[in-house]
Design goal:
With 181 residues, the chain is an alpha/beta fold. The chain contains nine helices and eight strands. The strands form two sheets. It has a six-stranded parallel beta sheet with strand order 3-2-1-4-5-6, sandwiched between helices. Helix 1 links the parallel strand 1 and strand 2.
Length: 181
């Protein structure tokens, strides 16, 4: 996948059990010689420690809106470096915040600052994905220029079946590849 070589790709990670696939995504991007930078929401850090993504990406992981040892204004400096943003998994809450322009943490604030292509990979319970509000938010985001790799049907973590599983990493990578010049 030469497309990703030396490319700065931001990976936004939100609090979904599908976070384990985000680990696979970051590892695959690094293996493809990309420069993945991970931005995690607070809920995401309750499921997987930032150190895991640091080890997989080889880069510092960003969790705080305000200055850290790597960036004085991370929502601006990370956005300026980004050639592509992938939010995987993207929860119903995150889709709603982004559709409404709410900026109350690093990831949501950064999303209002980026000018590069955005790819969203939603993951949630099937009933949540089917809810009219979530579908309305997804349509709003598409109209705003975001690309979505829709969830797939299958067994969900709660033990039910339905369309809500985050798309396979390979499908997300194919979509991302097509979005980079």
């Amino acid at each position: 996948m030469k497309t990703f070589e030396r490319r700065r790709i931001l990976i936004g990670v939100t609090g979904s059990i599908a976070i384990y696939k985000a680990c696979e995504l970051v590892f695959a991007l690094r293996k493809a010689e990309a420069r993945p930078a991970v931005v995690m929401t607070e809920c995401a850090t309750r499921l997987v420690a930032p150190e895991t993504f640091h080890a997989l990406s080889g880069e510092p992981v960003h969790t705080r809106l305000f200055a850290d040892e790597h960036h004085a204004m991370p929502h601006i400096s990370l956005a300026a470096e980004a050639e592509l943003v992938i939010v995987a998994p993207a929860t119903a809450n995150f889709l709603a915040k982004l559709a409404a322009g709410i900026a109350d943490d690093l990831l949501s604030t950064l999303m209002l600052t980026v000018s590069c292509p955005v790819l969203l990979a939603p993951a949630m319970h099937a009933q949540m994905w089917a809810h009219p509000a979530v579908q309305r938010n997804a349509e709003t985001l598409k109209r705003d220029g975001a690309h979505l790799v829709e969830p797939v049907a299958g067994a969900l973590a709660c033990g039910t079946e339905g369309k809500g599983k985050m798309a396979p990493v390979e499908e997300i990578l194919r979509a991302a590849e097509g979005m980079l010049p």
